Amino acid sequence: MDLKLPHLGEGADSGTVVNLFVKEGDTVAKDQPILELENEKAVATIPSTAAGTVTQIFVKAGDKIRAGQRILSLGESGAAALPAAKPEAAPARSRERLIQTPSPEQMPVVLEQEVLEPIAEGKEGSAPAASPSIRKLARDLGIDLTRVRGSARGGRIMMEDVRAYIQKLQRVATAPRAAAPAGAPAPKPAREQIDFSKWGPVSKAPLSPLREVIARRMAESWTSTPRVTQFDEADVTALMALRKKYAADYDQKGARLTLTSFALKVLVDTLKKHPIFNASLDEVAQEIVFKQYYHIGIAVDTEAGLIVPVIRDADKKNLFELSLELEGLAEKARERKVSAEMLKGGTFTISNQGGIGSGQFTPIVNKPQVAILGLGRGAMKAVVRDNKVEPRLMLPMGLSYDHRVIDGASAARFTVDLVQGFENFKEADVKI
User: Cβ distance 38 to 16 under 8 Å?
Assistant: First the structure.
């Protein structure tokens, strides 16, 4: 039997093979892990759905596979892998006929849907009936035999059926396209590949699956979200004094008291005052969805790229609980041990680059959220207070928001309350 990639969850229909745990000839048990699959920034283990001996493997590390695609074949336990049947050589004359381009008079007009919809399928989802030579030819030409209508008894596919299907593909490929309707977006210009080696030495590295996901999501957010960024500063001199006072107590109990811990607490209190920032835009129903829960995404810098795990129900946790969970979640993200579910459901995101040394920056909204808070490195500045110049530790922040949902005045009020939250943090909320 063939083991196929199962459905990975809502909105997830593909992934990239990271590791294979079996080889041909191995005996596997039901629910035994057979491979690791990277999907939407998470790495998941795919178990075997049956027991048996691996007779053939159809994927390798680095392959991108989709739900329903074959992973490997299993035979009865203890049975040796069966040698592949030797395919029959396709007649040379038949191959020549396949690549001949028929004249328009000989070829009826066909719709594109006709050549794209599966019409032939064997029993229980197996491949349609065809000879080994036709199967090999289909593999060489990249033809999906489930789309070819067999004319022989029982729907068996003959060489003439494959030829007719190729003629349909040629007809569709060469047919003139209908003009785009008025108001339709202009087609994207063709991408140009530049040979940079003409000007000097270069090296190349393929995009990792994680980087592909990041690139796709950032491009989608940039092109679909009219984003504005509100900048401000908060005086965190007193807050960092509280951190210094209680950091040792947190360390003794296995938690790190960081600026991000304080930011989580301040942020949730501010979101409760301004629920529009904890909402999402339903673009289909044209409705604003106000969420009654506070699941905060934390942008974590890893060697593979940016990962945003989510702290759930942040409003129901004290500062110690937030600090403890924050440290554990960040560690899991760096080790790529977060599940796909741990990356979903966020209502707002924090990106703190202060530990790296960055100042002001413009974060990109993490759709379908409507806002994101970027924190930079605190810096000592000369600040006038009561007509006196004092050295104060000032925290730069940038609030990016979706202008379709949030107005500038609302963003200004939000940042004012956010600043006050940082500057008036209560010591009672820090004590364990």
Answer: yes
Q: Is the pLDDT of residue 102 over 60?
A: no
How many CA within 13 A on the CB side of residue 261?
Answer: 25
From 174, 198, 232, the end of a domain falls on: 174
pLDDT of residue 137: 83
Distance CA 8, CA 4 (A): 12
CB-CB contact of 13 with 7 (8 Å): yes
Q: Give pLDDT tens digits for 211-254.
A: 777 788 888 888 888 889 999 999 999 999 999 999 999 999 99
Give the chain's largest Cα–Cα span: 97
* Structural domain of 45: 2-75
The reply to whether 194 falls in a domain is no
pLDDT at 38 over 90: no
Q: Calculate the CA 131 to chain-centre distance.
A: 40
Q: What is the pLDDT of residues 141-176, one digit of tens each?
A: 878 888 888 887 767 888 888 888 888 887 777 666
Tell whether 70 and 144 lie within a shared domain: no
Which CATH number belongs to the domain containing residue 331 in this structure?
3.30.559.10
Measured N-to-C along each axis, helices 92-99 and 132-141 cross at an angle, to the nearest 10 degrees, of 40
The catalytically annotated residue of 7, 274, 295, 403 is 403
Q: Which of 350, 368, 352 is nearest to 405 (CA)?
A: 368
What's the rounded Cα separation, in Å, for the pair 276 and 274?
6
| Dist. CA 252–CA 165, nearest whole Å | 71
* Cα separation, 282 vs 294, whole angstroms: 18
Does 7 qualify as catalytic in the annotation? Answer: no
For 288, phi then psi, to 5°, come to -95, 125
